[in-house]
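Retro notes (design track)

What went well: tokenization of the new backbones is finally stable.
What didn't: we kept losing track of which sequence belonged to which structure.
Fix going forward: every design gets posted as structure first, then sequence, in one message. First example under the new rule, 418 residues:
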């Protein structure tokens, strides 16, 4: 990609209508093309579990693009073991459309699969394999359509943005987005192809999580007054988190387009103490807020931290002046909050034929693109119900719908505006 995107004097919009009528290939098909199908199988065959490198897959993608005359830029992780890939088809002096997907998958460890997760098999119109749904099928369809994108000679650029480490807190794409922001990159639309059943998703919750380590003071359990019980202190804070959860559930704020329609709070792990006859020295627990896009997770965190320090800490400190709480932020994914009257929504509706929009509870990279000033929606094949599970699958019909949507997108950005 060339540095710097400069708006053309009369830049065509993504909503500019094309002159000719949509062709017969526009009808919703139930079977994807052989090229998409083969590309899905190829991508699944790379074990890109987040803890491992994705470079073999990235090399494959780079070679594939190079064969069609498209240069790729890779944005590596700090340790160089993984990389994002960014490529542009079409002009680089105007704002176009970003197609975004992550290349990593969740582990298959301990999951009872009926077939090899990295060798896709078809049964009953579904393709089974790790990442079929979340979300290599979308990435594969983008790649399979590259020859059509090139042949269309688009008037607006189509950007491919493929990331690593999405499944472990959307870590990878941040480096790519930072780079694009530094260059002044602009786009009219970003489609994040996470599985939405091809529905146009305009919002998702944000998520922010923390680890809390409680440092108490050990004593014989017959002498509790000489100890500072880290497990009990943790329990008081966890109980307060639960009280916050009940408050949001009862009092809101609410957004009925989310399930559940309020900010949820959850403590996921807790470990502490060594033996019943020892007042525990240490306890740690992890908790998260999955918040409505309008809620501020830092304000929620401040509330729990303030409670711990005002209500729980003084009693511990009376016994042990260095007792206390350590808080460590584990992950943060901003929510997505795209206005329903935004152009990107109208654009996505024309591509999918949808009239309605929805919101989802799971987090994606979309909020990060939005924060970078790029109008963003989520729309991709498959159901989140199948994601992360054993026997994950994609319905081939969904892949065909995705293909049809992207073909309409190619025509939209290629046609001469009327
Ligand atoms: Zn995903």
């Amino acid at each position: 990609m060339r540095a710097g995107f400069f708006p053309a004097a009369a830049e065509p919009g993504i909503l500019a209508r094309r002159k000719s009528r949509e062709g017969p290939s526009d009808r919703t098909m139930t079977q994807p093309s052989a090229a998409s199908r083969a590309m899905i199988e190829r991508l699944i065959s790379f074990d890109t579990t987040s803890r491992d490198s994705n470079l073999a897959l990235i090399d494959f993608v780079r070679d594939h693009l190079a064969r069609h005359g498209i240069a790729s830029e890779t944005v590596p992780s700090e340790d160089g073991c993984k990389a994002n890939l960014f490529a542009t088809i079409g002009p680089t002096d105007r704002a176009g459309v970003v197609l975004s997907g992550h290349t990593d998958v969740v582990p298959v460890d301990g999951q009872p699969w009926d077939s090899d997760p990295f060798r896709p098999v078809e049964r009953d119109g579904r393709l089974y394999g790790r990442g079929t749904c979340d979300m290599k099928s979308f990435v594969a369809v983008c790649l399979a359509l590259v020859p059509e994108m090139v042949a269309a000679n688009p008037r607006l650029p189509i950007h491919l943005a493929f990331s690593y480490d999405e499944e472990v807190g959307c870590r990878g794409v941040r480096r790519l987005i930072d780079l694009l922001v530094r260059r002044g990159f602009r786009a009219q639309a970003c489609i994040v192809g996470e599985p939405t059943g091809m529905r146009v998703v305009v919002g998702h919750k944000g998520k922010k999580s923390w680890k809390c380590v409680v440092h108490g003071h050990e004593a014989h359990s017959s002498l509790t007054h000489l100890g500072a019980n880290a497990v009990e202190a943790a329990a008081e804070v966890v109980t307060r988190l639960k009280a916050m959860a009940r408050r949001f559930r009862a009092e809101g704020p609410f957004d009925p387009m989310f399930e559940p329609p309020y900010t949820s709070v959850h403590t996921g792990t807790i470990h502490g103490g060594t033996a019943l006859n020892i007042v525990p020295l240490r306890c740690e627990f992890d908790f998260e807020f999955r918040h409505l896009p309008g809620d501020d997770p830092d304000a929620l965190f401040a509330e729990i931290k303030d409670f711990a320090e005002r209500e729980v800490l003084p009693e511990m400190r009376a016994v042990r002046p260095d007792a206390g709480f350590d808080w460590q932020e584990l992950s943060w994914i901003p929510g997505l909050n795209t206005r329903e009257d935004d152009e990107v929504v109208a654009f996505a509706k024309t591509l999918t034929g949808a009239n309605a929009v929805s919101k989802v509870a799971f987090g994606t990279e979309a909020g990060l693109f939005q924060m970078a000033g790029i109008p963003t929606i989520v729309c991709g094949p498959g159901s989140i119900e199948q994601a992360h599970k054993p026997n994950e699958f994609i319905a081939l019909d969904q892949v065909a719908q995705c293909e049809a949507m992207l073909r309409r997108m190619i025509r939209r950005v290629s046609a001469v505006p009327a």
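Added context from the reviewer: The chain has two domains: 24-203+335-414, 206-333.
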